[in-house]
Amino acid sequence: MGKLNRLFFTAIITLVLIFSFTANPVSAARPEGHFKGTMHWGVSANWMDPSITDLRAPGYFNLYMLHDALFKPMPEGMYTPSLAESWTNSPDFKVYEFKLRKGVKFHNGDEMTADDVVFTFKRYKGGNVKLFQSKIDKLEAVDPYLFRITFKEPFLDFIDYLLPGFSTIAWIVPKKHIEKVGDAEYKKNPVGCGPFKFVEYKPGVKVVADRFDQFWRKKPGVKRMEWVIIKEKATRYAMVKNGEVDLATLLSDVFYQKIKETPGLRVINPASSSTWTVINTAQWNPKSPWADVRVRKAASLALDRKSLADIHWPGGDSMGTIGLTGGKDVVPRDPDPYDPAQAKKLLAEAGYPNGLDGGIFHPYPGGYEPMGEQVANYWKAVGINVKFVILDKNLLLGKWKAGELKDRVFIDSNSFPTIAARLNFQLDNVRYGAYPEIEAVWKQYNKSNDAKKRVEIITQVQKMLYDKYQFIPIGQATSPAGIGPRVKGDPYGIKKPFPLWFVSPLEDLQLK
Fold it and tell me: Which helix (H) or strand (E) holds 17?
């Protein structure tokens, strides 16, 4: 019996046991206004502090709960004004000014002012920090409610770089409080100006926050928000079925159907900004079979993307690009067809008629390992044999950023807001190699200040990447959630153009 079949069989047995001991949903007693949900991803202590939060979507969760930004993706759009009511730029794109919202309070009672914004920008140590440091000339608090930033040269993409995914530099923190308690203490007990106040964080266990009644946008709909970290799908399903939690994330494969069939529960398929992509660092090793573009193309043709989507991200799309469907400057491209025969033919042409050793393959962790195993099985069917190795999510991402995944193949969750952000991360931030012809064109994009020319260049870059099969796009993810009877409506409010697969905005969540 294959590994995938064994996983399926284990899931069925687990369901039988669940139904044997839990015949009817029982609402667990909780105080009024206390929401409790499961989350399938781990939470890092670094994510409590916007200055060092992970650029990936899992890290945004704490930002939306505890903090707030100058602007951010919301139901109204990608660039929804938040702590900044409006902003302007000079004709030469060197000077940007932000008119700040008056009366915004941090959780400790301090008012947010331009001094806090200047402090936040200076304190930032996260993604793309070197780029900001190289470009910023001056940061000014013109008055308490006007923040000005001046660059050494035109910076046309600056507003995009304030979106989560490019950076978290625009998520504002309290200057006086951090200067008083220090960075280490602040990370343990974060103070923001978001809809919920920090209460408790237990690594690998839970995150708890209480409503902040003075949140500027609206009074949050629940008094206490508790998220427990549960990595097993069967356990998440049992908890929402029994009323132990109000919402359980990522209930795919057999659990997706069971949620739909369970009385009193409903399922919601929130779209995700994450697009599953095969990353291949072994292609830079001339001795590796992956160095041949025909092998990489064969690996793409070997994938039945529709089957993968139906099982692991119901309602999601198969994709031929690494950008969001319909996103700005994204080059449309149909996904490769499922064609094992053509894949085998390409491998034979590349000199591997009897198959090849594809080295170590890491699935994306955090509940998505079965998807990776199915990918590995598709490859095995055409002759690409890989060693399946599961790593913890933080370990996998940490090793990738540290350059320790040389000669590896793995699945990545690319969740950045724009195609430029995605290319920036893949081509600039994490580097294991480069194709000189693509590198040269990408440098032109980053140096150009001509908006029309930049569109032409980024289009060219995408086409070159796909011709080289530098990445293998798989699909746009969903994260099916089981919703209990206490939750009102659809708690996943941010759907387009940058959909978030976790409950958001969190202040909009309401209980019956």
Answer: helix 3-21
CA dist., res. 252 & res. 311, Å (int): 7
The pTM is what?
Answer: 0.83
Q: What is the mean pLDDT of each run of 10 residues along the chain (512 residues)?
A: 46 43 49 94 91 86 96 94 98 97 98 98 94 96 98 94 92 98 97 98 96 98 97 96 96 92 94 91 97 98 96 88 89 96 98 98 90 97 97 86 92 88 81 92 90 94 96 92 96 89 94 94
Q: Which residues of 168-178 are buried (b: 16+ CB within 10 A; e: fewer)?
A: bbbbbbbbebb
HSE-CB at 257 with a 13 A cutoff on CA atoms is: 8
| Location of structure tokens 């591997």 | 352
Helix (H) or strand (E) holding 459: helix 451-468
Note whether 491 and 35 are within 8 A (CB): no
428, two tokens: 């600039």
Residue 211 is given by DSSP the state E
Q: What are phi and psi of 117, to 5 degrees?
A: -65, -45
**412 strand-pairing partners:** 277
Domains of the chain are 3-42+194-270+480-508 (3.40.190.10), 68-188 (3.90.76.10), 272-477 (3.10.105.10)
